Amino acid sequence: MLLADVHAHLDLIGENERKAVVERAIAAGVKVIISNSVDPKSIRKALELQQQFGVVKAALGLYPTEAARLPAAAIEGELNFIRSCRARIVALGEIGLDYQEAKGDRERRQQQRLFELQLGLAKELGKPAIVHSRQAEKGVVETLMRLGCKRVVLHAFHGSMKLVKAAAEAGFYVTIPTNIRRSSHFQAIARELPLSKLLTETDAPYLAAEKDGKSEPSHIAATVARIAAIKGMDAEEVANILYGNYQRLFS
Ligand SMILES: [Zn+2]
C-alpha cells in the first residue's frame, strides 16, 4: 500500500514511543508522515525528526495562537528561520485561524496578519500551506481565495458542505482524518467530494478513531479502507489515487 499522512504532530508522541510508532506506520504502508509544527520549539523538533526518520518530512509554521503569544520581532525571526529552511521543508504548516482561541477582535486581527504573512511566505518559497481552521472556516477560505492561494490542504475542516465544495472547486485539498470512523461530517466529505480532492491525515496524536484514544500514522490504513467502503472501491486503488494527490501537491 502507498499511504500518506499529510498532517501529524510526531513531536507530541512520547520520546520512547516514537520509534515504534514510526515502525508501525512503515509496516502499514505509510510512505510519508508530514510532521507539522506550531511554535519555535516544535519547528526545530520537526527538522530533527526529519533527520532521524527517512519517512518523516517537515512542515514548518506558527499556529494561529502564537500571533498573540509571540512578540512581533520573534515572529519575524521565526519566519526568517523558516525561509532559511526552504530546501529542507515540504510545506508551511500548521498555519491558519482559530476564532475559538482568539479572545477578541484584536487577537483575530493579529491571527489574520500572521496567517497572511505565512501564506505569503508559502508562495515565496513555492510550498503548499497546511491550514488549520476552527470556528473560522469562512474566514480561512475567503483569505485563501483573496490571496490567490492554489496549493492548500484544509486540515480537519469543519465548514458546511457548501463551503467544502467551494474550497474543493478552488483547487484546495480537504483531508479525511482518522476520526472518520465516528464522524458523520468526514464520512459525508468522503462521499461528496471526488477522490481527486482528498488527502489523508491523522493529526496524531489527536483525532483518533476512538473518542479518547490516540491516533498514530499507521491508522491511515483504516481511514483508506473506510473511504474505499464509502466509495464502493478497492482499498488499494483508493490508496494509489490519494497517494498520487499527495505527490502532485507536495512535489
Ligand atoms: Zn494539527
Helices, strands, pairings?
Layout: E1 3-8, H1 15-28, E2 30-36, H2 40-52, E3 56-60, H3 66-69, H4 72-84, E4 89-98, H5 105-125, E5 129-134, H6 137-146, E6 152-154, H7 161-169, E7 173-176, H8 184-192, E8 198-200, H9 220-231, H10 235-250
Helix pairs in contact: 9-10
The protein binds zinc ion.
Walk me through what this model shows:
The protein is α/β, with parallel strands linked by helices and 251 residues long. It has a single domain, classed as TIM Barrel, CATH 3.20.20.140. It contains ten helices and eight strands. α2 links the parallel β2 (30-36) and β3 (56-60). α9 packs across α10. The longest helix has 21 residues, at 105-125. Zinc ion binds at residues 7, 9, 36, 94, 203.
Task: Describe this protein with a few key phrases.
251 residues; alpha/beta; TIM Barrel; 8-stranded parallel sheet; 10 helices; 18% strand; globular; binds zinc ion
Compute the CA-based radius of gyration.
17 Å
What is the count of helical runs?
10
Write the CATH homologous superfamily: Metal-dependent hydrolases
Structural class based on helices, strands and sheet pairing: alpha/beta
Trace the largest sheet across and list its strands.
1-2-3-4-5-6-7-8
Mean pLDDT: 97
Ligand inventory? zinc ion
Number of domains: 1
Q: Tell me the span between the first and last alpha carbons.
A: 20 Å
Please report the total strand number as a whole number: 8
Main beta sheet: strand number and arrangement?
8 strands, parallel
Helix content: 40-55%
Shape: globular
Residue stretches low in confidence (pLDDT < 50, at least 5 long) are: none
SSE sequence, one letter per element: EHEHEHHEHEHEHEHEHH
Strand content: 15-25%
What is the fold-level CATH name, i.e. the topology?
TIM Barrel
User: CATH top level?
Assistant: Alpha Beta
Q: Any idea what the CATH architecture is?
A: Alpha-Beta Barrel
